[in-house]
Specification:
Blueprint: E1 6-11, H1 19-29, E2 33-38, H2 48-55, H3 76-83, E3 86-92, H4 94-101, H5 108-115, E4 120-124, H6 128-132, H7 134-145, E5 149-150, E6 154-157, E7 163-167, H8 171-181, E8 195-200, E9 205-208, E10 211-213, H9 220-231, E11 235-240, E12 252-255, H10 259-268, E13 274-277, E14 284-286, E15 305-307, H11 311-317, E16 324-331, H12 335-346, E17 350-355, E18 367-373, E19 378-384, H13 385-397
Parallel strand pairs: 1-2, 1-3, 3-4, 4-5, 8-11, 8-13, 11-12, 13-16, 16-17
Antiparallel strand pairs: 6-7, 9-10, 14-15, 17-18, 18-19
EC number: 4.1.1.36, 6.3.2.5
Family: In the N-terminal section; belongs to the HFCD (homo-oligomeric flavin containing Cys decarboxylase) superfamily.
GO molecular function: FMN binding; metal ion binding; phosphopantothenate--cysteine ligase activity; phosphopantothenoylcysteine decarboxylase activity
Amino acid sequence: MLSGKRIILGVTGGIAAYKAAFLLRAYQKAGADVRVAMTPAATRFVGVETFSSLSKHEVAVEVFPENRANTESWTQHISWAEWADLFVIAPCTANTLAKIAHGISDNMLTATVLAARCPLLICPTMDGEMYEAPAVQTNLETVKERGYHLLEPEEGYLASGLEGKGRLPEIASILKESSRIIPTNNTEGPLTGQKVVVTAGPTREYIDPVRYISNPSSGKMGFAMAEAAQQLGAEVTLIHGPVSIPKPRGIETVEIESAADLFEEVKKEADADIVIMAAAVADFSPQETSRQKIKKKGAKTELSLTQTQDILRWLGKHKQDGQQLIGFAMETEELIKNAQTKLEKKNADWIVANSISEPDAGFQSDTNSVYLLDGKSQQQFKGSKKEVALTILQTIFG
């Protein structure tokens, strides 16, 4: 649910501020793009450079920062508020909670709260007696009445040395609550309610730590298929190899490297309603992988290979009732004949076939020319990969 989402992580001046760095990384691993807003007090616990380096974004602290040449910086809270899908404040001190409850905007974090168009998740974190104080409890009720989301602190050993309720919740709990409240794709279409798994990009089969067998796949066609399925209303999981193109927003992504990695992830998702195997999977892997770089001097010039798992064929053998299996075939000759053979041998329902010898088609191109086969007929589609992907799914699923 967090993949492709844009999250502002607010960090305030409590000892738990250091945990926000781990939370940021967890959001990133879930596929989210994260920007960090800190209160001035938070910078006393964790340096701005830490969050800037981790997030790959500038960190917002002051509305009017010193030595800032950009005269539009004071409107940053507006642009960030428009950018975000979710605003999470973790940890949130009693001081910042009070400011939010009473609409005070004396730093970039609190100003952005007032400008936010997205859900706000507050994780109040403080000493146990502070948390139970009447003023804090009143402020908690106030922010709840205004529609903000609260994740109550956990009990345990606190920075004061006392036991009580006030600890920042575990990162897994914050991610779970974030996933629950973040806006989701509500597109209605022919694939609404369907779970779709798409594989994309190349795999890498390592010879040694610095050399591998792979192919030039960019992942563009597979990513386009995932976006098309989402556009038609599906819940999509995208499993992809090493690529440099941006991840699609709102789609859960899983990164893999080798064919064996891909097989393990596909098996986890084998109960999907629709599986689209668009990945360019290496057919061969080195029989042995060296742990150290193989030196040129004295090295063998022959490389022994072994076949990798035929994932599409495995899916065909284990296909469930009603499940639709769509494979891809990249050929250099006898395109239709070879694609038809693949359709039958793999027990697929559809094969999308294209030739790398055609102009404006193939691995790195933004356009494609393909044939869609179902064993009875064939149809040709041309255009951008996004247009072709959408046309393929509309043709199959109406």
